[in-house]
Amino acid sequence: MGSDIQKNQKLFNIKVEDTEINYIVTRSNRKTIGITIDKNGLVKVTSPYRVSESYINELMYKKSSWIQKKLLELKSRAEKAKSPKMFYNGESFLYLGNEFELKICRDSSCKKATVKIEGKNIVIDLPINFNTDNIKKILRQWYIEQFKHIAAERINHYSAQIGVFPKKVTIREQKTRWGSCSSKGNINLNWKLIMASLEVLDYVIVHELCHMIAMNHSEEFWKIVGTFSPQYKNYRDWLRHNGESLNFD
User: Fold this and answer.
1) CATH architecture of the domain covering 142-245
2) Could you read off the pLDDT of 122-170 as tens digits, one per residue?
3) How far does CA 122 lie from the centroid of its chain?
4) For the chain, which residues make up each domain, given as ranges?
5) How far is 198 from 191, CA to CA, in rounded Å?
6) What are phi and psi of 24, to 5 degrees?
7) pTM of the full predicted structure?
8) pLDDT tens digits for 186-208?
């Protein structure tokens, strides 16, 4: 039923109606069984050595509805992330972890383009003759300004707690990195984090500030991170699985 992948891993599959679910079982000294799904849709099971394969197989059948639901959500997010933004009325945009609808209003009395939050809408007020092609530029700049303001507040908050103060903070736009910290104490942050929840943003800030104490990803480093962001594993996993949804292109 399964084939070896690594020494302590096996690949299995179950068939639920017309759907086949493949999953990798990794054996370890842990005490409980865990099921996770990575961003590529790979189902991973971590299990104690003592648990039988038949028990794990039975558990996967019981969890099959949940697994299929999560796989569909993952596929939907991936497709949504690949869809280019058109910047039209009613289009959905993320801001601090919540979805808002874009509302574009043209007004003859409006002299300058402005952006604001109204209820569940991101409202852009525009002069009558404003070039629609510039809406993306206006909205992008608004996101960046909001991020600068919020990130500065959160950095000050956690710097006081952790006891480290960055020499310089730079806001960047990167495809694969959410933040970085140099040996000189300079921190870079990706402005697209403004689309994630405040908890996720806080985790990234804590992560980079903690690098000013430990410039590595050692066990000691993660202990420090956990002191100031106890749920950091959840936020780290969220970014791994959902980072592509923080899309502005």
Assistant:
1) 2-Layer Sandwich (3.30)
2) 999 999 888 767 899 999 999 999 999 999 999 999 999 999 999 999 9
3) 21
4) 3-69, 92-138, 142-245
5) 13
6) -105, 130
7) 0.73
8) 999 999 999 999 999 999 999 99
